[in-house]
Amino acid sequence: MNDTQKDKFQFVEYSAEAAERIGYSDYSYWKSVFQNFFKKKSAVVMAGVFFALVIFSFIALKIGKYDYAHAQIMANSSLAFSKPNSEFWFGTDNLGRDYWCQVWYAAQVSIKLALIVAAGECVIGVIIGCIWGYVRSLDRIFTEIYNVINNIPIIIYMTLAALVFGQSFRNMAIAMIAFGWLVMARNVRNLVLMYRDREYNLASRCLGTPVWRILIKNIFPYLISVVILRLALSIPQTIALESTLSYLGLGLDVNTPSLGILLRNARNYFLQYPYLLIFPAVIVSLITITFYLVGNAFSDAADPRNHV
To answer: In the UniProt record, does the keyword Ubl conjugation occur (predicted)?
Structure first.
């Protein structure tokens, strides 16, 4: 190498601080999740629709001419089946009660029930699913429990719960959670079985890492997308199940209005007075569609394999 070529090169001193700065990454899992989610405009719009629906359910009761309690007391048979007008924005029901306040009050009850049930199913399903998939000695026991419960239609469990414990908001929420965690637990269990014996988990166990830390740090990030998807799908499924049970007379008690009860009450009149069915049905449909689209989009965004 001649002198001219030597002048083009120089030794660089090693700096630990500079090396650490170069190797630093500002990657954040949840930041990446939301960045991926906001790229899907249709899902963002649907999420906005749902939140607007929830917020408006509270505003609607404030701007309406009648509140729910007043409408129950002031039932007037002479006003029965009044079509939507300037006085009664959604018309009146068969007893002459304002339908606007009933629909939005029922929407609050149904959404509250769905969120509570979804959260309960998520917590119980994830805990049982992790134990079921990670502890091999318990696999047979949980599998048999799953098979016994899953082979009987859930509507039978809900019917027995309604007949034995009574029809109330609390009883229905507890019964739905008690028999609704199966799908979440099965999905979590299958994923835990896939990841429990990966090399990095074997290395962690050899180093004495506690089981709970392996589950939370090494395995749970791969479960988030499935958990979010099941959580999102559980909400419209809960509302649909409640509507079905109420339609059959096995849902909430008559003093606790819900969208299902309004649909049940409308079944005898909707041919002559279709607005009694249309308004609650539209809200149920909006909740179902929005959560399906948002749940799928957020599930894809939460999958670590989709992060760069």
So the answer is: no
Instruction: DSSP letter for 217, please.
Output: I
Distances in Å between the Cα of 229 and the Cα atoms of 197, 219, 303 are 25, 17, 11
**What gap in Å lies between CA 260 and CA 246, rounded to an integer?**
5
User: How many independent structural domains does the chain possess?
Assistant: 1
Residue at 58 is within a domain:
yes
Q: What are phi and psi of 92, to 5 degrees?
A: -130, 160
CATH number of domain containing 90: 1.10.3720.10
In the prediction, which pLDDT does 268 show?
82
Average pLDDT value for residue range 261-279: 86
Backbone angles phi, psi at 70, to 5 degrees: -65, -40
Taking the C-alpha atoms of residue 211 and residue 203, their distance in angstroms, rounded to an integer, is 12
**Which has the closest alpha carbon to 125: 60, 182, 191, 68?**
182
Q: Name the residue range of residue 57's domain.
A: 40-306
Q: Whole-angstrom Cα distance, residue 126 to residue 130?
A: 6
Q: Is residue 92 part of a domain?
A: yes
Question: What is the H or E stretch that residue 195 is in?
Answer: helix 182-195
Share of the chain above pLDDT 70, in %: 88
pTM of the full predicted structure?
Answer: 0.80
- At 22 the pLDDT is 56
Single-letter residue type at 222: Y
Q: Is residue 265 part of a domain?
A: yes
Give me the long-range contacts of 264-268 (CB less than 8 A, separation at least 24): 265/93, 265/94
Closest among 233, 230, 229 to 287, alpha carbons compared? 233
173 part of a folded domain:
yes
